[in-house]
Specification:
Elements (H helix, E strand, L loop, with lengths): L2 E6 L6 E7 L2 E7 L3 H14 L9 E5 L2 E5 L4 E2 H11 L4 H18 L2 E2 L7 E4 L4 E4 L5 E2 L3 H14 L6 H18 L3 H22 L1
Antiparallel strand pairs: 1-2, 2-3, 3-5, 4-5, 6-8, 7-10, 8-9
Helix pairs in contact: 3-5, 4-5, 4-6
Bound molecules: adenosine-5'-diphosphate and magnesium ion.
Length: about 200
Amino acid sequence: MAEQKLSIYKSRRNRVCLTQTDAGRFVVKTFLDESCFQKELQIYKLLQNKDIPCAQVMAAEGKTLVLSELPGQTLVECLQQQEQTGVPVCDIWKKLVAWLTAFHQETGFVMMDVNLRNFLYDEKTKMLYGLDFEECSPDSIIISAASVAAFIRTYQPENTPLKQEISKYVLQLFAQNYEMEVDRLFLESAGQEEKILARRKNKI
Ligand SMILES: Nc1ncnc2c1ncn2[C@@H]1O[C@H](COP(=O)(O)OP(=O)(O)O)[C@@H](O)[C@H]1O
Ligand SMILES: [Mg+2]
């Protein structure tokens, strides 16, 4: 089948390309690690027929997954736009918490890598999608919730009033969903923020 690479996505560890074939456009994700490929495939199988918006696996072979192309832009871009207008779009962040909660409750796993490039939001349909499941574990939701709020605060420019407001909103929603003490989540999130900043410093 004729295949044309249209673009390469920003990826930390893997090779992720948007590809045009005779049958349409697909995202081709080739993993560096066989175990990560297996983990992501396992999670996609768990998500099948569940009401949790995500890509469809079209093929899986070697260390490569062929996925349906999801619409929308990453939550990093959404956050940047909200920073420019100075107005939080609460509906998007509410959908993010609802997605992570449903993912945990339906699969028993939590997403450990919850950086905002792992979520897409489609303005047209108002749908939010999750992707990148190679780092999932049957853990407590606390780390995932604390970490996603920490990611929100740490994109440049860090810790603006808007980012703090969105982060607080997200943590309060998790606290409601799981009947948790919000102060415990705030504390855990401060710890996650330190870890994110330390990782970033070590890379430079
Ligand atoms: N099915 C998809 N549809 C549209 N974009 C995707 C899809 N899968 C991945 N992407 C894009 O590719 C980027 C990297 O993919 P991801 O699975 O997160 O790889 P990595 O594990 O290397 O971070 C994402 O941030 C997203 O922008
Ligand atoms: Mg990713």
